[in-house]
From TrEMBL:
The chain crosses the membrane at residues 25-43. This is DUF4381 domain-containing protein. It holds the Pfam family DUF4381. The keyword Transmembrane helix applies. The keyword Transmembrane applies. It comes from the Bacteria. Keywords: Membrane, Transmembrane, Transmembrane helix. It comes from Halomonas huangheensis.
Length: 163
């Protein structure tokens, strides 16, 4: 008799599904603001990645040409072409000797004067020296300096040309 009575009972009602959507407009506003911020941040990162494409290309070409044994000639040419890609031609193309090395030092974020010494002179005169006459340790140090310049140079022309 008890089992028959239990079978006659109606099942308990199932509660309504709980919505995952915010119930107040404040949460929707915060979610919208966060979405806008994330989209803005992603857009800025994409623009920065695009703007630095010349750096990636210069570093890849530098590695390729150094591996083929071009040495100081490749370093001088690639650093000059990279500078011409970023700065206006009238500010870069006519720089030679100490003016060129001073420009390279000014565009680095560090306050050191890495190009002012013998490495800067090697950058200026190395392409005109006979092949094999450049010391390999100096060439290695210069290639590291050129790599760091390509990666880290500032592109704010107003600061560089006002000096």
């Amino acid at each position: 008799m008890l089992p028959e009575m239990i079978e006659q009972l109606s099942p308990p009602p199932v509660p309504a599904q709980i919505s995952w959507l915010p119930q107040t407009w404040g949460w929707a506003l915060i979610g919208g603001i966060l979405l806008v911020l994330v989209v803005w941040w992603a857009w800025r990162q994409w623009r920065r990645w695009q703007a630095n494409a010349y750096r990636r290309q210069a570093l890849a070409e530098l590695e390729h040409r150094l591996a083929s044994g071009e040495g100081a000639t490749a370093l001088a040419e690639i650093v000059r072409r990279t500078a011409l890609a970023v700065y206006p031609r009238q500010h870069v193309a006519n720089l030679r000797g100490t003016e060129w090395t001073d420009f390279l030092d000014r565009t680095l974020p560090s306050k050191r004067r890495d190009f002012a010494g013998p490495l800067g002179e090697l950058l200026s005169t190395g392409p005109y020296r006979p092949v094999g006459s450049v010391d390999q340790s100096d060439l290695k140090a210069l290639s590291q300096l050129v790599r760091s310049w390509i990666r880290d140079h500032r592109t704010n022309l107003q600061q560089e040309t006002s000096r």
